[in-house]
Every structure is written in C-alpha cells, then in structure tokens.
Amino acid sequence: xxxxxxxxxxxxxxxxxxxxxxxxxxxxxxxxxxxxxxxxxxxxxxxxxxxxxxxxxxxxxxxxxxxxxxxxxxxxxxxxxxxxxxxxxxxxxxxxxxxxxxxxxxxxxxxxxxxxxxxxxxxxxx
Amino acid sequence: xxxxxxxxxxxxxxxxxxxxxxxxxxxxxxxxxxxxxxxxxxxxxxxxxxxxxxxxxxxxxxxxxxxxxxxxxxxxxxxxxxxxxxxxxxxxxxxxxxxxxxxxxxxxxxxxxxxxxxxxxxxxxxxxxxxxxxxxxxxxxxxxxxxxxxxxxxxx
Lengths: 126, 156
What we know:
Number of helices of chain B: 6
Distance between the termini of chain B: 31 Å
Largest sheet of chain B: 7 strands, mixed
Number of strands of chain B: 9
Largest interface: A-B, 18 and 21 residues
Order of helices and strands of chain B: EHEHEHEHEEEHEEH
CATH class of chain B: Alpha Beta
Number of domains of chain B: 1
Number of strands of chain A: 4
Strand content of chain A: 15-25%
CATH architecture of chain B: 3-Layer(aba) Sandwich
Strand order of the largest sheet of chain B: 3-2-4-1-5-8-9
Order of helices and strands of chain A: EHEHEHEHH
Helix content of chain B: 25-40%
Oligomer: heterodimer
C-alpha cells in the first residue's frame, strides 16, 4: 500500500501556510501538500487535486464544510479513483496529529484527525 | 424584493456568493440553474452543505427555471439566481426576459483569454455576452459587492 498523504485544500494561501507551519513545528516535510482554489474554476481545481493526490491514498483537509474547495474535494473523492477521505474545518492541531499517524486507512486517519482537531478548540478564561 | 442578483459563476454556490453577496443582501433563497445538478441528488447535497440552514436552495433545469421565474421574481424575500456558464445564461435569457446578468467568475480553461482577474473568455463567449447586452440585458462583471461593476464593453 502506498504511503498515506494529506492534501490541504483552501481559499487563498491558508493551505500553504498550514503546510509551512507543520514543517516548522515537526520537521516533517513531503507528507502534506497545499492546494489553493485561487483563480480556479471547478475543472482547474479538480486538476490541482489530481496532481496533489496522485495515486493515493489520501486525506483531503478542507477549510470549510461548503463552497468550491469542499464541493471539488468531495466530488474528486467520489470519482477520482483513489482511496480518499475528506475532512472539513482543517486546523493545525489535526494536521500535527495526522503526520505522526499515517499507518492506517484514509477513513480511520480522518476520524482520528477530527478528534484531534476538535479537542484543540476550547475557550480559555483569562 | 425578488431576485437581487443574476450571476454567472462557474463555482456555483461558494463563499463569494453565500457570504460576499449573501450577507449584505440578506439573501433568503438561492436558485441554482443547472441541468446537470438539477438531476443529481448527490450534487445537490454537496451544494446545500455550503449554505446556512436559514437560506433555501432551489435547484432547477433551464426549462424549470423559465417556468418558475415569475414566482421567484414576485417572492417577497431576497434571492440570488446562479448559472454556471454563459451558455446557460443565454439559454435562460432566450426563454424569459432578464434585465441584468452579473459575470462573477469564469475561470481559466484552454482557449480562454484573461479579460479580468476573475473572467476568462473565449472569443465566442465574449461575443455571446455582447449579444446578451445587445438584447437589452445589462451585463457587468463584478466578483464581490465592494468591487466596481465593469461594463461588458470593457471586458469583451
């Protein structure tokens, strides 16, 4: 089985910034790829996803649970031919967990990433 | 209030539409006119996921949209009508009289040339937009409400 990859799909440069942040914190490089929807129609974004995912397997980490990044990712996961899971609401905490826990299926990695990401969202009183 | 925006956008329902236009217009319903999406429950579910629950999303083919247009235009709520390409806009305008069309996003594809940062057109597509305008439709390009509405003569 090929190594599980992560592809971050976002508006503007959020994805590339998250890739850089994970590398800065962990030193791990080459596991995550950032894809922006900047200047893309549906067709072009689908091509960018195809290039980033390759043969898969992969988890697509999308910024919002709707919109062009999400619809293109969900569509690609359905018809792209690779083993892909889609997670929305990407945050840095879930990516940091993901890069250390990739020896599993996309679906299981996605569930784990959602748990890690959700645990990082909290209110801290002053 | 009826339909406040008639938009050509190849991303269909996305952030600029729901938030960028939807918030200032206080949109209550979005009509997505697309023959393919109107026949796919799965695609409709995808597009609904990007829309807050208080906004109704209506999917229609071109034929269905032409028939329903009077009721949407008479709706007291504020709505946005979306099509994904110029051919769909032309097909709709051929069936019902439309006063205006906003070109909100037509992105790069082989054969298209950049006209504006967010508008790429083939010569044929540019000609179709000019024909729409010649037929009495006010055609402008504007990605978000805070941007200038660029007249069709400036980008085709």
